[in-house]
Amino acid sequence: MQSQNQVVEPGSIQPLQQDSPDIHCPSCGRFVGPYTTCPYCGAAISGRIPLKVVKAFTLCFATLGLLFLWWLANRTEIPHLSIVEIESRMNFATVRIDGRIYRAITYDPVSQYLGFWVNDGTGEIHISAYRDTTQALLQTGLIPSPGDDVSIAGSLRIREDYTALTLNTPDLLTRHRPPPATLNSSDITLLDEGRRVALQGEITAFSAPYTGLTLLALKDDTGEITIAIDEMLVALTGSLPEVDVGMMAMVTGTVTLYKGTPQVTLSLTVRSSLCCLTPPNPRQWCGS
Predict the structure, then answer these.
(1) What DSSP string runs through 72-92?
(2) Residue 111: alpha-carbon gap to chain centroid
(3) What is the predicted pLDDT for the residue at 53?
(4) Contact 121, 99 (CB under 8 A)
(5) Boundaries of every domain in the chain
(6) In the chain, pLDDT over 70 holds for what percent of residues?
(7) Considering the domain 83-176 in this protein, what is its CATH number?
């Protein structure tokens, strides 16, 4: 009976994988790995791409890839959406919204936060701009106001009960300011909300119901209407000119609603929106 234990002769076992001769120095035979020059004898190892070349090629390829992505992003048109089309899955997406500003603007002179609402006929969305963007809008005179038609592109912020769009750069805001329609106070109705109008009459009352809001009563031959001056407009465009009861004035503003009643809210700059035609002193306030 033959024994099951077999004796293995030395040298009869072959390695499963032999080292490639390319990783050994052809001169001294030592292991050199990826080097292009033997670290032991200094012999040149032929047939290899230098590591510096590989790194340079990789860097160039990555840079070209980034440039291509930048070019593609700038060539891609920002999608236009109506406000009713916005969905929760679009959070942080960049979109463009067209509409009209119907409400007064919110402005914080300390943080330089700017906010306003845009209505496109299908719904409303809140627009926000922060310090750098607000400063650029102020410097270029592109601060929007109620009654302006605007086209705005920005990133969406969507919550369960609130949808907002952040304006990140001023060049993504396009503003069109319709010329005011000259009307009498009795001509203004609920249907004129958001419309820019111009009126002329006598200031019959002047009040400040609370800090931040000034109300004027403007009377003409057909009736009387309230003129609202918000502190946000004053902070953005300058102080209120000197006014008093009995003065004749020309007012340019946007029709807004307060508890269902039409009023005119000053827009543009204070001094160009409220022109006192009979000032109590020789100073000319209109357009100054």
Answers:
(1) HHHHSPPPB--GGG--GGGTT
(2) 16
(3) 79
(4) yes
(5) 18-76, 83-176, 181-276
(6) 85
(7) 2.40.50.1010
- Rounded to 5 degrees, what angle do the CA atoms 205, 211, 212 make? 85
Q: Pick out the chain residues at pLDDT < 50.
A: 1-3, 8, 11, 13-18, 280-288
Strand-pairing partners, residue 198, are: 182, 252
pLDDT of residue 21: 53
Residue 265 to residue 54: CA distance in whole angstroms: 66
Q: Which CATH number fits domain 181-276: 2.40.128.110, 3.40.50.150, 2.40.50.140, 3.10.290.10?
A: 2.40.50.140
Domain 83-176 and domain 181-276 have a common topology: yes
> H or E stretch including 133?
helix 131-140
Distance, in Å, from the CA atom of 125 to the CA atom of 165, rounded to the nearest integer, reads: 7
Whole-number pLDDT of residue 270: 61
